[in-house]
Specification:
Structural class: mainly alpha
Oligomer: single chain
Order of helices and strands: HHHHHHHHHHHHHHHHH
Number of strands: 0
Helix content: over 70%
């Protein structure tokens, strides 16, 4: 039986406390009024205003057009009295032009003021969204890491894999976070959809009047999707998906534990059938989930590859977490039946799914870039211009780094290298989720600050606490799995 060390438990609690403090600070430091946001906008544009002021000062040194015209016409009048009438007419025309220019300038000034107010209001919502978005990204990322491990576990059950049963309890320990993460995430969804807090503007399609003709917020495209994108249907789908995933996790683990004490393979067969049904449910629910919880941040944009893309991201993250938890337990003297061949297989999955993720990333990007349809390329245009570093940085961390490190067969068995690669992969896919959420919710006001770091710390601490507590509840090696002996002696 595994014993949760005091040192690791204390570390998890400290991470949670630091995270909660940072999250609270992030919400408290967000602007509460438009005036506060305007000060932030003014500060950020200080240099631009300075240049503009210098330009105006230079312009002020140049005599106005009216003054020039009067001076010229007066000079002509003195030189040629016969042209007085024509000059007077010219002066009147010049004055009329100048007056008309003043009128146009006044209208332009009014339009600029209106545009400025709208910009400040937009920035105000973005800055208020920042702590919410940071919390959302960290919450959904850790929950989906657990879901990725659950999907991998189900695949092993259906494939009747002979190498992996010695790792089943590790997978079940990681999936123990799914119920906790699901409850927190569902609460965030409800808070977001019901607008309990006015500072929450994460989903544009949830704004008041967005589907009502005549409203200043009316959006024809979003109104056309209102049959699908409405809160009641959206939250109902979320409840069904979360409940379905957690029911499978609960009964699958229950059957696995019951199999240890059984005299036949009844519970194993139940798990096989249940896992097959779950994978069908999962493949459908995962796609819809990715549209609902991630793609709908940009309701004007869609991609038919998006569901697969999201799946690849959290699936490789789940496998990476299985590998890292296994290596940790192995270093503490547990999992005596896990050998370098098991670690090598996990590393192969880390490597292979990283390549699969890159294939989907490039396919989605290349097809949209090649078609060059305005409403499609906007998604990538914003990310390349405003999120250049995290956008391309994710590719380096999730593809180039794993390729360079894990392509070597020997490296796939060396614990420090695998852990290092795992940390980079997990950070890279957190940034991947960051790129999916932040551009539509925070825009160009993004930066990795207290809210982002604190949210990660809190959910990381909670994840460690829940997972390693779950590992203490049952022996780390299943006793009566039909393939357990094959798994114990797995070598190649």
């Amino acid at each position: 039986m595994y014993t949760f060390s005091n040192k690791l438990r204390t570390t998890a609690l400290i991470l949670m406390i630091l995270g909660l403090v940072g999250i609270a600070y992030g919400f408290l430091s967000a602007p509460n009024t438009v005036e506060e946001a305007e000060k932030i906008v003014a500060a950020s544009h200080h240099e631009g205003h300075k240049v503009e002021a210098e330009a105006k000062e230079t312009h002020a040194l140049v005599p106005p057009a009216e003054t020039k015209a009067v001076a010229v016409t007066d000079s002509l009048t003195v030189k040629n009295d016969s042209l007085t009438t024509k000059i007077d007419t010219a002066k009147a025309e010049v004055v009329a032009v100048v007056e008309n220019t003043k009128h146009v300038s006044k209208e332009t000034k009014i339009d600029e003021e209106k545009e400025h107010k709208e910009h400040v209001q937009h920035v105000f919502h973005q800055l208020q969204n920042k702590p919410w978005a940071a919390l959302y990204v960290a919450c959904i990322f850790f929950m989906l890491v657990s879901l990725g491990a659950l999907a991998f576990y189900a695949i092993q059950q259906v494939a009747q894999a002979g190498w992996s049963p010695v790792l089943f309890r590790v997978m079940q320990g990681i999936t123990a976070y799914l119920p906790v993460g699901s409850v927190i995430f569902f609460i965030i969804l409800i808070v977001t959809g019901t607008h309990i807090f006015e500072s929450n503007h994460l989903f544009a399609w949830m704004e008041k009047g967005i589907t009502v003709k005549g409203s200043e917020n009316y959006d024809e495209m979003i109104a056309g999707k209102s049959g699908y994108l409405n809160f009641a249907f959206w939250i109902s789908r979320a409840a069904i998906f979360l409940l379905g995933w957690n029911l499978y996790r609960y009964f699958s683990r229950k059957n696995c534990l019951s199999q240890d004490e059984a005299a036949d393979n009844t519970f194993y067969k139940k798990n096989f059938k249940m896992s097959a049904a779950f994978l069908v449910f999962f493949i459908v629910s995962e796609s819809i989930m990715s549209w609902d919880w991630l793609m709908s941040f940009d309701p004007h944009w869609f991609s038919t590859l998006f569901g697969w893309y999201v799946f690849a991201s959290f699936f490789v993250s789940g496998i990476t977490t299985i590998s890292m938890v296994t290596l940790y337990l192995k270093s503490k003297g547990y999992l005596e039946n896990v050998n370098s061949s098991h670690i090598h297989d996990l590393s192969k999955f880390m490597f292979g799914i990283s390549v699969f993720w890159t294939y989907l990333w490039f396919s989605q990007f290349m097809l949209i870039w090649y078609a060059n349809i305005p409403e499609e390329v906007t998604y990538f245009k914003v990310r390349i211009e405003q999120y250049n570093l995290p956008f391309f940085g994710a590719v380096v961390m999730n593809f180039i780094f794993p390729i360079l490190v894990l392509i070597n067969t020997d490296f796939k068995r060396i614990a420090p290298i695998i852990v290092g690669a795992g940390v980079v992969i997990l950070c890279g896919h957190y940034i991947d989720f960051f790129n999916m959420v932040m551009p539509a919710t925070v825009g160009d006001q993004w930066f990795i600050g207290v809210s982002e770091i604190a949210s990660v710390l809190f959910f990381l601490g909670l994840f460690i606490f829940v997972v390693f507590t779950a590992l203490t509840k049952a022996p780390l090696t299943p006793k009566r799995n039909p393939f357990i002996e094959e798994s114990k002696h797995f070598h190649y």
